[in-house]
Histidine phosphatase family protein
Amino acid sequence: MKTVYLMRHGETLFNQQKKIQGWCDSPLTELGRKQALIAKNYFIENEIELDSAYSSTSERACDTLELVTDLRYARVKGLKEWNFGDLEAEHEYLNPPLPYGDFFVAFGGEGEHEFRERVAKTVLELAQADAGENILMVSHGASCRQFMRAWEHTSKVELQGRITNCCILKFAFDNDQFELLEIINHDFSGIR
């Protein structure tokens, strides 16, 4: 059995400014870098030796991964965030109420099921091909949420609230099946 740690990136400038951020990118903030170091400590404190690592091609995900581990890693387009089309970098108040469904298709973005399929297929293929036991994948909030939805039928753990920055979703992977074992939303209240 393998364990896949699917993790959201740290806080970015656009997160701070409440801007829609999918395929567009912005840098990690100082808080985002500190969040990544707290996530790194989760692996150290729990004596989890990571065997391999993957990141979305977005800078915010790569930078987060590089703060968490020194492992060489592969950048994978399939781990990218939802494509929000023409609404990229616009203010979040333009988002519709959840669930988004196919709202962004009209703006040149991805539909929800298309997006979910992309992320689920990518994570599955990476887990199948990787020989390691503990695999880290750094991605994005909606990507993580859609992967959870793809495998909710095999999981008893449910998320109450949001996938916060640097949240880690711990999945067991066996016989081409994922099961969500734990959701690690870190306490960042002590960050200065």
In short: The beta strands are 2-8, 52-56, 74-76, 134-139, 168-174, 177-184. The first strand starts at residue 2 and ends at 8. The longest helix spans residues 112-129. The chain has a mean pLDDT of 96.
